Amino acid sequence: MALCPNVETMLLTITDCNGGGEATELHHFAKRLGSLEDAAKLKRLQHLTLCSYAADSFSIRNPAVRVILSAAPALRKLVLVGTSWTGNRHIPRPFYINNFVPALRNLTTLELINSKIEYDWDGPEQNWNGREYRTFAKVIEMAENLKHFRYLSCIKDDGIDHIPPAYLLKALSPRCETLEAIEISTDDMTDYGDSNPTYPYLMVDRSKLEHFHSLHTLRLDEICFCEHVDFYDLDTPEDIDWYCIHHMLPPAVKHLTIGMDSDLRTVLNDILWLGTAAVDGNFPALETVHVILQYGPDNETARPAVRKRAASVLDLLEESFEGSGVKVSVDPVPKICSEHGSDSEWETEVGSDDE
């Protein structure tokens, strides 16, 4: 690293864990970095991706992460793939926010891909303020220039649920004046085969978004905000209020992306009502509406049928938004996350601001 003082982008892959739960490759890299001291300062590093394929959960509390981030004062984009916020439960580590400050001062983009912030659905309500939440909230608090936040995850095989989107937004609230783009999508929130409870206090509504005064790009899955996501269980579905998006969407948002289950398409009528509202001039800032039809990642045979549904949904959207000036689009996407964090959709909408 002493020979590469001008490096601006770095991808570190973590593939091996020893018996102590440490990521050995990263550990040796950080040890070498630390031994070089000032000579190894990553003074121009702007984009760092830590991608973990370790058998055990890899934590941001790992000392190696601290060494690397403390050497990167110019960091603007941090992508964590496959990490956790507490690490191995049997090897608890303290979290010292001051060790992360050098890398957080100039950070504008934080992406957490398959990097679960845990939440105990069966615990008392006050558990949302637990260890993982506090760690995450500290990072957000210190990232004073944060503009883009992305949380995409679909890991469910460990039986641990994600922190609800409403609580993510609460943790992000200290950056309400700087955040321009928020993207939240978790398989916990889109898996209709599961029976996770939906509580009113977990739903995302306008009161949880309206204080983000700079927000112009928003992505949410339908179950994060849709009040009638279980409307098939209602006795009188004809009495449903199809204005969930209308009630949730801040009027200043320019680019809206909605994740929708390809089979149920529960929020489709709400999107069509949004089109009517846009035609009436209720959302003058809105420029694009993008719908993601989500389907099972292991069901490749469903892809042709989902593509046909996407074409049908696009026809409905174009008809509903006609005359509004809003550009609409639909993509069928498996419920699976990008391994390295960034996809063309996100880069097109918000990536250019970081260049």
From TrEMBL:
SUPFAM superfamilies: RNI-like. It comes from the Eukaryota. InterPro entries: LRR_dom_sf. This is Uncharacterized protein. It comes from Fusarium solani.
